[in-house]
């Protein structure tokens, strides 16, 4: 199934979604897709199409592929301009993820600060692409192109604190669509944790918690357009890493701000 088909399946029946093996990340489903599906379920119960301002995601356990999973969203409160929405992701009778979202309408304010400037990366065609190698790379990476412009590849014994480059969904997965929040969630989570280049050999790592804040209104661009991504390790010790990241549109407009706590088994 393409990314678009996965989102359509969630919109049609959020209480019974099957994520196929081609969207696997190790023994679990790709976390970015799980987050995107939860967002779609939450958007459906949000008042008057208010845009999302932030999502706080906790990955309680692995979401299995080829097993039905339920995205159970509810509006906790509908205020004058802000809606608080919650989603439980349930599989085999167990909660496997929790997502809390804040959706808010624009309001008049005297405070206006321009976004962080985008990094000066080489153009995508001049950057090294992370290749998809069947049975070596996570299955979901065949759907997303990532090209390194900053830092080193995973498991390269690097000691750099930053990592980033360009990313986009493959055209066949989102043909003709406009970039949306669900697409951004998949793109941002596609990047390996910035701590992985510090390892000298492959070892498991996963997101424990993930908070994403979205700049509204979103830049208008195709869903298969290139976006820039830059991540910074702020601290890592005792098997946990704390990573801050940003995502920009090709024209330099900030799209999202991300923070992750990741586990490191190596």
Automatic annotation (TrEMBL):
Pfam families: 4HBT_3 (PF13622), 4HBT_3C (PF20789)
Entries under Gene3D superfamilies matching the protein: Acyl-CoA thioesterase, double hotdog domain
Keywords, sorted A to Z: Hydrolase
Residue span, Acyl-CoA thioesterase-like C-terminal domain: 124-263
InterPro entries linked to this entry: ACOT8-like_C, Acyl-CoA_hotdog, Acyl_CoA_thio, HotDog_dom_sf, TesB_ACOT8-like_N
Ranges where the Acyl-CoA thioesterase-like N-terminal HotDog domain occurs: 20-104
Family: Belongs to the C/M/P thioester hydrolase family.
Protein name per Swiss-Prot or TrEMBL: Thioesterase family protein
Taxonomic source organism: Pseudomonas triclosanedens
Upper classification of the organism: Bacteria, Pseudomonadati, Pseudomonadota, Gammaproteobacteria, Pseudomonadales
């Amino acid at each position: 199934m393409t990314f678009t088909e996965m989102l359509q399946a969630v919109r049609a029946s959020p209480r019974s979604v099957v994520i196929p093996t081609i969207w696997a990340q190790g023994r679990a489903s790709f976390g970015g897709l799980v987050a995107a599906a939860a967002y779609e379920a939450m958007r459906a119960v949000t008042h008057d199409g208010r845009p999302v301002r932030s999502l706080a995601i906790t990955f309680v356990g692995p979401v299995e592929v080829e097993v039905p999973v339920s995205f159970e969203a509810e509006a906790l409160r509908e205020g004058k301009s802000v809606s608080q929405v919650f989603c439980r992701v349930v599989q085999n009778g167990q909660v496997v993820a929790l997502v809390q979202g804040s959706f808010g309408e624009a309001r008049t304010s005297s405070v206006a600060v321009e976004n962080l400037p985008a990094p000066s990366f080489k153009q995508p065609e001049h950057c090294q692409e992370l290749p998809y190698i069947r049975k070596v790379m996570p299955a979901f990476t065949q759907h997303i192109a990532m090209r390194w412009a900053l830092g080193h590849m995973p498991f390269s014994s690097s000691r750099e604190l930053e990592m980033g480059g360009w990313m986009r969904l493959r055209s066949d997965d989102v043909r003709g669509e406009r970039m949306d929040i669900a697409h951004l969630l998949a793109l941002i989570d596609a990047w390996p944790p910035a701590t992985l280049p510090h390892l000298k050999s492959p070892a498991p790592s996963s997101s424990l918690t993930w908070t994403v804040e979205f700049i509204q209104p979103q830049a208008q661009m195709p869903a298969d357009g290139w976006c820039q991504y830059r991540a910074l390790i702020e601290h890592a010790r005792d098997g946990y890493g704390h990573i801050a990241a940003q995502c920009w549109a090709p024209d330099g407009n900030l799209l999202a701000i991300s923070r992750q706590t990741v586990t490191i088994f190596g």
